[in-house]
């Protein structure tokens, strides 16, 4: 608070430099954060006992401490957290990004042919189409069983009714679509 708008002054005292002060405040542990309220003026408090922040909760971040101070202060400007630039983090991120760019540039001759392979993308697209048209996403979202009982001690591979399906049914439909597409492709090739 360089402008002094919150009218708050921070100070530190080491035990070696202020043993008498620690004894007069009856402090047994450190660190201790005490907030001394004004004794004169419009925000004065009758009791002159300082407010105390408890570090025993394991607080090691600035935000809870700043919030506690802000709650203790009267209405008006509150102090903000101002952190110095973390140069180690900045250098680490810069080095990692430059290393990644260098790796991508050096490895480009090896991975670009794979990424630009039309047959690979066609296979991925075909697999995705077959998965989605065969009900795989339906099974994944609804978490359907793989097979179900038929009520007579056997196993049913197809669920009856609408909006019902079992996992094995999806695989059977996918295999049938694949076979049908393969047979259809062979017929069109032989006729042309």
What is this structure's SSE topology?
Elements: H1 19-24, E1 33-35, E2 51-53, H2 62-72, H3 87-115, H4 118-133, H5 136-142, E3 148-149, E4 155-156, H6 167-191
Antiparallel strand pairs: 1-2, 3-4
The gist of it:
It is a multi-pass membrane protein. The protein has 192 residues and is mainly alpha-helical. The protein contains 6 helices and 4 strands.
Any key phrases for this structure?
192 residues, mainly alpha, two-stranded antiparallel ribbon, two-stranded antiparallel sheet, 6 helices, 5% strand, elongated
Given the structure, what is the number of helices? 6
Overall 3D shape: elongated
Q: Helix-strand pattern, N to C?
A: HEEHHHHEEH
Q: Describe the largest sheet.
A: 2 strands, antiparallel
Contiguous low-pLDDT stretches (5 residues minimum) are none
Strand order of the largest sheet: 1-2
Structural class: mainly alpha
Please indicate the percent range of residues in DSSP E strands (runs of 2 or more): 5-15%
Percent in helix:
40-55%
Distance between the termini: 84 Å
What value does the average pLDDT take?
81
Cα-atom radius of gyration: 36 Å
What is the tally of beta strands?
4
Protein name: Oligosaccharyl transferase subunit ost3/OST6
Membrane topology: Multi-pass membrane protein
Transmembrane segments: 87-108, 120-138
Subcellular location: Endoplasmic reticulum membrane
């Amino acid at each position: 608070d360089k402008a002094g708008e919150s009218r708050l002054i921070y100070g530190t005292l080491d035990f070696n430099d202020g043993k008498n002060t620690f004894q007069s405040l009856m402090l047994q542990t450190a660190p201790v954060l005490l907030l001394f309220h004004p004794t004169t003026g419009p925000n004065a408090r009758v009791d002159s006992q300082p407010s105390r922040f408890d570090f025993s909760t394991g607080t090691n971040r600035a935000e809870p401490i700043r919030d506690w101070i802000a709650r203790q202060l009267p209405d008006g400007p509150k102090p903000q957290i101002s952190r110095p630039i973390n140069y180690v983090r900045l250098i680490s991120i810069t080095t990692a990004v430059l290393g990644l760019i260098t790796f991508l540039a050096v490895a480009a001759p090896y991975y670009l042919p794979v990424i630009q392979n039309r047959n690979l993308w066609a296979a991925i697209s075909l697999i995705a189409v077959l998965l989605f048209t065969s009900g795989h996403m339906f099974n994944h979202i609804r978490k359907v069983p793989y097979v179900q009982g038929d009520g007579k001690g056997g196993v049913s591979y197809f669920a009856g009714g609408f909006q019902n399906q079992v996992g094995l049914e999806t695989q059977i439909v996918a295999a049938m679509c694949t076979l049908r597409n393969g047979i259809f492709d062979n017929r069109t090739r032989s006729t042309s």
